[in-house]
Design a protein that fits this description.
The structure is a single chain. By secondary structure, this protein is of the alpha/beta class. The protein has a 5-stranded parallel beta sheet, sandwiched between helices. Strand 1, helix 1 and strand 2 form a beta-alpha-beta unit. The radius of gyration is 15 Å and the shape is globular. It starts with a strand and ends with a helix.
Length: 151
């Protein structure tokens, strides 16, 4: 299952991604927004990041105007590795090197075709582990230290 979320700035791109994922037979849960009215991106980033952080979904995709705001919010959640990508190489590296479990995209900076291609690359890529796992382990230790009030 993949959870999707967007604000008004990412709505059209989110809808295109949803349709593409569904066409490939993937289970998609849309966390909103569902219309073009102005909304606050943290509300939708929270829904997706919470689902990934709590293990309700393995993967998520967030879309706002640039992707910046969504990535800031999503990375506040323990265990979330939200990666903002603007091209195919970044989407590939997000998974291979960072094991990103949320891909963040900009609805005002990417065409639907490019974004869908990026999503496909991200989904088809595999985490390389090795030295990259050591780095993720360090991030997890930092998360634990912050939660424990040690940082």
């Amino acid at each position: 299952m993949i959870v999707l979320g967007s604000d008004h700035g990412g709505l059209k791109l989110k809808e295109a991604i949803h349709a593409a994922l569904a066409a490939h037979g993937l289970e998609v849960v849309d966390c909103g927004t569902d219309n073009g009215d102005s909304v606050d991106y943290p509300d939708f980033a929270e829904k997706v990041a919470r689902a990934v952080s709590h293990g309700e979904s393995e993967l998520g995709i967030l879309v706002c105007g640039t992707g910046i705001g969504m990535s800031i919010v999503a990375n506040k959640f323990p265990g979330v590795r939200a990666a903002l990508a603007t091209d195919e190489f970044m989407a590939k590296m997000a998974k291979e090197h960072n094991n990103a479990n949320i891909l963040v995209l900009g609805g005002r900076v990417l065409s639907p075709e490019k974004a869908i291609n990026m999503v496909n690359i991200w989904l088809e890529s595999s985490f390389e582990g090795g030295r990259h796992q050591q780095r993720l382990d360090k991030i997890a230790l930092l998360e634990d230290a912050v939660r424990a009030g040690k940082l």
